[in-house]
Amino acid sequence: GVQKFILVSSIGSGESVVAIPPQALETLKPVLIEKEQAENYLIASGLTYTVIRPGGLKSEPATGNGVVTEDYKIAGTIHRADVAQLVCKCLFSDAANNKILSAVDRNMTYSQVSFEELSLT
After folding, report:
1. Which CATH number does 5-105 carry?
2. Nearest to 66 by CA among 39, 86, 45
3. pTM of the shown model
């Protein structure tokens, strides 16, 4: 059976809606509603889960600077390859179990606000 389910969602879903600009919210609102429903379904399923909410996605090669945080107010961008690396790390990390995590590149956040990175080791 399934031991752990990792769902890649989006910053702007659920309580992280506060992290995105109003114009982005207006454009993405229908998609974010669907993503939040998927998150809620997974959480209610009883499976061990991790929801990863990446910021704006970029297509360049991985930087190795992708991080996850439980801080839902953080926003920024991240490369798709870094999200993939974080998914793999979360799969093998008990620290990520049953958590909703925002994923950004630590050097590409939208503000200078400090946040606590979740250690996946």
Report:
1. 3.40.50.720
2. 86
3. 0.95
